[in-house]
User: Fold these one by one.
Assistant:
Number 1:
Amino acid sequence: MLVRTVVTVLLVLMVFPLFVLVTDSFLGSREILERFGPVLAGTEGQAEFVLFPQYPTLRAYVQLLLDSPEFFTAFWNSVFQTGMILAGQLIVAVPGAWAFARYRFPGRRAMWFLYMLLMILPFQVTMVSGYFVLSAVHLMDTHWAVILPGIFSTLPVFILKKTFSAIPREILEAAEVDGAGELRIFLLIGIPLGRSGIFSIMILGFLEYWNAIEQPMTFLRTESLMPLSLYLPDISTSDAAVSFAASIVMLLPALLLFFFGQEYLEQGIAASGIKE
């Protein structure tokens, strides 16, 4: 009973800020000024907290979705950049992880150690070198400055390698006895049995790059290339309700993907694989 109570309290504390964000997105500009004027506009008095709007309105959503073309530009940039990164990770990470799990080749341990080293290094450590490389190949301030580093991320390889390693070797050996080649084994056995790991890297990759801030801020300068994660900070305090509405719209794709793919995400992270 005590554990359930503690978990419930923690759940309420985590969900409450999201609930407040949703309700505040229905505030009108006048009600926002009355409640948050001392914080946003420097007026006298104290900010007030009210759970529900007194005069709810959809004006912020109408302004965002109908009168803000720059929002749709940023939304498309996020979709394009994130989608290309995920597609590239499927092409690069899945075969790479299969090779690490399936084959023994010279330099395998050294290469895997390098992968692990790159995985634990934060972006701030590799930022300068990445900047120089992208500048040398004339990709700075383009979509590819964000896409290419994401494609070659090491975390998907790490997750998938463990997933593929959990496939019982007897299944692969039986396929070899039946005359299946390496490519056929990979396509017809490796990918289907490793789908939990593949789905998990797609979900984790989407959550990471949909909300990415440091990479676009470092490698992009043109405003028309900025993703949604950099659009929100540019909204002025006078459009606070629009900022709330934009936050909700940006949150929805990640939230829906997480809910529908939660089972695959848990299986992939745990690298449960197939049991004999």
Number 2:
Amino acid sequence: MTNEWIDISQPLHNDHAEWPGDTPFSYEVAFTKEDTGSVNIGKLTMSTHMGTHIDAPFHFLNEGATTEKLPLDLYIGRARVVELNNVTSIGRKELEAIDFGGATRILVKTERREDLTVFPSTFVTIEADLAPLLKERGVRLLGVDAPSVDAETSKTLDAHHALYENEIMILENIVLDDVIPGDYELIALPLRIVGADGSPVRAVIRPI
């Protein structure tokens, strides 16, 4: 295993599938070098939850903290990648026997998503009873390789609320297809968007 950085963020492109009903991703060169005489300038339109992203508590709580108020140290530091196969959801019973090694950031690898141009019809979700276990072990950040910790059709967002109540922040849509379970250094910094409910991130890990 080398010490090179591994990009675990989804590449964003104009065919990237958005959450059903959300703002599609769009990038275009709004002004060309020929137009300006000096530079190309791009224009970006997207949801704050497009691709690999973090959820701020304001996403699901009107009184919750917004993106610029989140502690940076949540998104930088040692993380453990754990792998679960053949599961439809992840609760206490799925992770209780797995050693976290004292890591305060847990990244869960479940299944490969082959086509980012199609929103998945199903994906692995998080059960609310996982949150107390994570808190008991000192976990502060949970990363998942799914579009959300809750099902697409959920209106109560039980996992979002349970994680928040146990002081655990959320990182979604990471790409762990070729990542070997183990310990890594993680950097997944959100943009400093004032008042935002979330932010895209460039998530990278390096073996330690």
Number 3:
Amino acid sequence: MVSSILAILSFLVVGYTVGSVRIIKEGNGALVERLGRYKGTLTPGLNFIVPLLDAVVLEDSLREQTLDTPPQQAITKDNVNLEVDAIIYWRIYDLERTYYAIEDVEFAMQELVITALRSEVGKMDFQSLFSSRETINSALLDVLDEATAPWGLKVNRVEIQKLEPPRDILEAMQKERAADFTKRATILEAEATVESMRLLSHALDNTDNRREVLNYMLAQRYVEANLKIGESDNSKVLFMDPRSLTEGLVDLINEGDSSNSSGS
């Protein structure tokens, strides 16, 4: 009889001990309620509660987490429709407030991001939008950090992932960029040509065999031009006598020199 009582007591003690032990993982926290009311927060490691009276109602991570919002439509100040989304880096610093102050914290943050993102995009015109990512990120961070503080959350940073305009806008941007590159290349080429002519004129003025130099240069240009024409599949190659070209140009140069001499 005594042994049976001791066995029952031992069983109860063991059951009570096992039921009172709660092990919380590192980086997590847990909330305990006693008879339906908040009792306390368990920290990582070994914790004890009162069986039947206490209950662990929540265990959640206190580490930094990410929330990726789905793509949403937003309109710029100059009425360009964009598809935008963002990712939030956040963590819980007060598990009690997070659990009791808001029903669905991730859904609430997602709605906040969408609303704030649309608002910030609507303040800017399309051209300045892509160079203002950091400004938008900073504005979103300020709004979210202030709004989520009563929920026991800390938003560490916000990053915009997508700012995608419609296809026709993208094509127009690419054409404008290509035209700008072409214009710059033309200007640079013209400047290089002018500089080459200046250097050539200076070199010819300081040489005694300018006729031979001109003959060589014209012959070289002649060969290069014929090679380029010959590379085309649908062009006809016309050969001209380089001697007549060089002699004519040299005569013109000599005439210009003689006229300058007589004038002086």
